Amino acid sequence: MRIYAPFFLLYGFLFLLLTTMSKGDHNLENTNINWTRFRGPNGMGIGFAHSLPVSWTEKDYNWKIKLPGKGHSSPVVWENKVFVTSADEELNHGYILAFNFSDGSLIWQKDLNIFPYEINEDNSFATPTPTVDADHLYGIWYSQQTTFLMALDHQGREIWRTKFDGTYSRHGAASSPIVHGDLVVFSREQEGESPFASSWVAVDRHSGKVVWNLQRETTYRFSVSTPCLYNSSRQSPQLLFASRAHGFTIVDMITGKILWETGPVFNHRVVASPLVSQGMLIGTCKKKIVVFTLDHHDNTFKGELAYELPAKLTSYVPTPIVYKGLVFVCVDKGNVACINLSTGKVLWNEKPAGAFYSSPVLVDNRLYCTTKKGEVVVLNASEKYEVLAINQLGEESYATPAVAGGRIYFRTFSHLISIGTN
């Protein structure tokens, strides 16, 4: 037995290590099974699957499901269920749907009455992506009359619904909620002469009761960026927000207290989500990408501007990918650029296909970039530009894919598609 003891000790260590690693960025979740929010683990857009094809046709789909209405929200996944929202803007109906990941069969559908409001023609009533944990699915529905956040259990039963003041913007809202620990957090900024206050809000995930409501400045061009975790420590989790009015902001998630803030560094509306990697903060607005270095000890922060990137290299709607010291940017007009994170040096900048609204995802060292026309450009995620394939979804798509259980889920305007094997 003494001969094999070291082997079993090593095996146990590796098992523990792999189990920990499978929880994803900041040990948030099991990325092999679950995709719990917009752009997956901590909004980084990185999934784990070794069975995804580089190229495919419709014959390779696991399934393709027609959705009621339309929308631009991303699917989220918890174990064997795929959740997605949609809306019929003529009937003022919202839909929350749950599908079986294996065959795409409908498990349940929740129909909602929603308020109509004016939005940009490229937006939709079902643009915010829901967030999910082991107990509930949390979805938000905005309008100028009222905003409501709701929780459903995994069987589709409504647990709670909390109403807030309306949300005013000439383009409509789009920010998605996130869940961590016992709190659901979302951004409800206002624009221009809105009668309502801008705020970032945290509610108790069990009851829907407001835990904190941090009032923010209202500006001419409000932001719809989705926050992420800067530090996921259970003792003192911290959130990172990006907005035109306040720049980068770090907030204590438990108390809602502002711990650090740059002040305005973005010169336009912030749509894309902020990112954290290697002690650096990455944020983008319509006209530039801003990168800060940030050191912290306890709740003391020291940050400084590392560099900015010009408009021609900037993604307005798509959120970039950070991977192995590289930043990959899908520029709205159709270029894809690769940038050294530490230095800001542009390594390549090419246009493989059409324009982008969807954010890219990264799986197995490959970028999957979905154009507005529904082309999925597959690129090698490296310092060398290499197009591996361009696939067709057959319909326009503004939604970011989800990756879970060895599969990738694409949402077009009116369909949900599953590709890949377990």
Give an account of the 3D structure.
It is globular, with a radius of gyration of 21 Å. It has two domains: 1-30; 32-327, Quinoprotein alcohol dehydrogenase-like superfamily (Methanol Dehydrogenase, Chain A). 4% of the residues lie in helices and 43% in strands. It is mostly beta strands and 422 residues long. It has a five-stranded mixed β-sheet with strand order 1-27-28-29-30, with no helix packed on it. A four-stranded antiparallel β-sheet has the order 2-33-32-31, with no helix packed on it. Strands 3-4-5-6 form a four-stranded antiparallel β-sheet, with no helix packed on it.
CATH superfamily caption of the largest domain: Quinoprotein alcohol dehydrogenase-like superfamily
The biggest beta sheet reads: 5 strands, mixed
CATH overall fold name of the largest domain: Methanol Dehydrogenase, Chain A
**Overall mean confidence score, pLDDT:** 90
Name the CATH class of the largest domain: Mainly Beta
Which class do the helix and strand fractions yield? mainly beta
Radius of gyration: 21 Å
Strand order of the largest sheet: 1-27-28-29-30
CATH-derived architecture of the largest domain: 8 Propeller
Count of extended strands: 33
Helix segment tally: 1
Sheet-strand content, in percent, reads 35-45%
Helicity, as a percent range: under 10%
Give the overall silhouette.
Answer: globular
- Which ranges are low-confidence, i.e. pLDDT below 50, for 5 or more consecutive residues? 1-31
